[in-house]
């Protein structure tokens, strides 16, 4: 839950409040990310990150479809549907999900195993499905706001590309095509979403809902890294059935 | 609710059972449709039909997005998303909703009024939203089956084009572009959906659910015509606030 608003914000103030949430809560501040980017993780730990993050990637089109299913604003639907096309692929072109599987394959994980999500941490799946469910249950202005973590994504993608290329022998430029592509897509998406939220969240209740939605979404991302850290860094308690780098899936 | 199944059907038997439901329950059998096609309606009654039917058209992309939001089958999502593009319009091209507004405009209804749904019958809106809600709450095999009224649509569209052209001076070829376009789209959509249902509904419970879903969808269409008949034909009780041909909206 975000700080309680006591008065309606101007669109500019609302943007500042949203950016402040990102500065405080976006998952680039999580210790797992520092380990990931600095080269401090083993191959097994990077594999665990990539296969868990796949669950999030795979859920994105369902989340975006849930948003479209909730809005009678045809302009919003026509803008938003390109996210489904980008991520699922369209017209014979591969999508973001395929590009993520390039990464997991290159890390030595079979796509069947990754797609099955058998090795994912339960906490990952809970967080991801909580996000899809949140979007299915809230009106568009709130759910558009929940996507605004994209505002903060380009920095982390740039950091990830350079950090991972530099620090891991098993990472090369071709496997990071997902992040390269998102460097182009995310700012366009984020700009539209920010503009939509600034224009449509005008009452105190709507603005509070928008800020809470972004906090919620930051929590969805943060919780995934908490779970990874606990399972694969410290204390290192891998839940039953989850991916174990010491006992790779056959 | 469909007749109770007592044993699992083969895919061919399932198709026959689905087609039997259409033969008994599709809205081409409704008295309002006979009046519409035979030229027995006044301009005001045709206006009432077109503006109420707009509510259904406008809800279709939300229904299709709800289906996509419920499925983890990426192939199904990639096939289904073209319905949203067809209907909402995509890449600068107009969609089915625009083509419906060509019809309502040509009947003398302002698009702002039609889009506002202010003049729609409450029973229309309830039926349409029941459909969107049904799709949001059921798994893909059931919701795909609910779209199978498309199997029966080409005949009614052909009948509508020829009957309305022949029988109403206020209808010309250019305003029926919606139905012409659907003659091409519906069979492709229906073929995919029928194939999907035949391959995925394998248990008694799934097959019963599929048959019930098609009955439900036929009811959604039928209820809309019942409401039109009651309000604008007999007994002619127009609910408060609904479109009144005697007192056209300003």
Question: How would you characterize this protein structure?
Answer:
The structure is a homodimer of 250-residue chains. By secondary structure, the first copy, chain A, is mainly α. Chain A has a single domain, classed as Heme Oxygenase, Chain A (Up-down Bundle), CATH 1.20.910. Helix content of chain A is 69%, strand content 0%. The A-B interface holds A 58, 61-63, 65-72, 74, 77-78, 81, 84-85, 88-90, 97, 132, 136 and B 58, 61-63, 65-72, 74, 77-78, 81, 84-85, 88-90, 97, 132, 136.
Which keywords apply here?
homodimer, 250 residues, mainly alpha, Heme Oxygenase, Chain A, PQQ biosynthesis (chains A, B), Haem_Oase-like_multi-hlx (chains A, B), PqqC-like (chains A, B)
How is the secondary structure organized here?
The structure is a homodimer.
Chain A: H1 11-25, H2 31-38, H3 43-69, H4 74-88, H5 96-106, H6 111-116, H7 122-137, H8 140-146, H9 153-167, H10 177-200, H11 204-232
Helix pairs in contact in A: 1-11, 3-4, 3-5, 3-7, 3-11, 5-10, 7-11, 8-10, 8-11, 9-10
Q: What letter string, H or E per element, gives the SSE order of chain A?
A: HHHHHHHHHHH
Structural class of chain A: mainly alpha
The largest β sheet of chain A comes out as: none
- Number of separate domains of chain A: 1
CATH superfamily of chain A: Heme oxygenase-like
> Beta-sheet strand percentage of chain A?
under 5%
Q: Biggest protein-protein interface? A: A-B, 24 and 24 residues
Helical amount among residues of chain A, as a percent range? Answer: 55-70%
By DSSP (H or I, 4+ residues per run), the number of helices of chain A equals 11
Radius of gyration of chain A: 18 Å
CATH architecture of chain A: Up-down Bundle
First and last CA, distance of chain A: 42 Å
Can you count the beta strands of chain A?
A: 0
| Chain oligomer state | homodimer
Q: What is the average per-residue confidence, as pLDDT of chain A, rounded to a whole number? A: 95
Shape of chain A: globular
Keywords (chains A, B): Oxidoreductase, PQQ biosynthesis
Catalytic activity (chains A, B): 6-(2-amino-2-carboxyethyl)-7,8-dioxo-1,2,3,4,7,8-hexahydroquinoline-2,4-dicarboxylate + 3 O2 = pyrroloquinoline quinone + 2 H2O2 + 2 H2O + H(+)
Domain Thiaminase-2/PQQC (chains A, B): 16-226
EC number (chains A, B): 1.3.3.11
């Amino acid at each position: 839950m975000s700080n309680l608003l006591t008065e309606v914000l101007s669109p500019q103030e609302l943007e500042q409040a949203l950016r402040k949430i990102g500065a405080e809560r976006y998952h680039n501040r999580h210790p797992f990310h520092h380990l990931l980017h600095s080269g401090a993780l083993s191959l097994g730990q990077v594999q665990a990150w990539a296969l868990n993050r796949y669950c999030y990637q795979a859920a994105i089109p369902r989340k975006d479809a849930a948003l479209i299913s909730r809005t009678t604003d045809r302009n919003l639907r026509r803008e938003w549907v390109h996210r489904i096309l980008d991520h699922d692929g369209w017209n014979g072109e591969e999508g973001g999900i395929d590009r993520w599987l390039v990464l997991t394959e290159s890390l030595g994980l079979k796509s069947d195993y990754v797609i099955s999500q058998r090795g994912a941490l339960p906490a990952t799946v809970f967080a991801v499905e909580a996000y899809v469910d949140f979007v299915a249950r809230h009106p568009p202005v709130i759910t558009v706001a929940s996507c605004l973590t994209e505002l903060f994504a380009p920095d982390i993608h740039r950091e990830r590309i350079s950090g991972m290329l530099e620090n891991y022998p098993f990472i090369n430029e071709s496997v990071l095509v997902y992040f390269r592509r998102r460097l182009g897509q995310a700012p366009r998406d984020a700009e539209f979403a920010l503009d939509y939220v600034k224009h449509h969240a005008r009452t105190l209740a709507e603005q509070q809902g928008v800020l809470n939605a972004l906090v919620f979404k930051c929590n969805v991302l943060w919780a995934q890294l908490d779970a990874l850290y606990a399972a694969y860094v410290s204390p290192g308690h891998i839940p039953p059935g989850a991916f174990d780098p010491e006992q790779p899936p056959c």
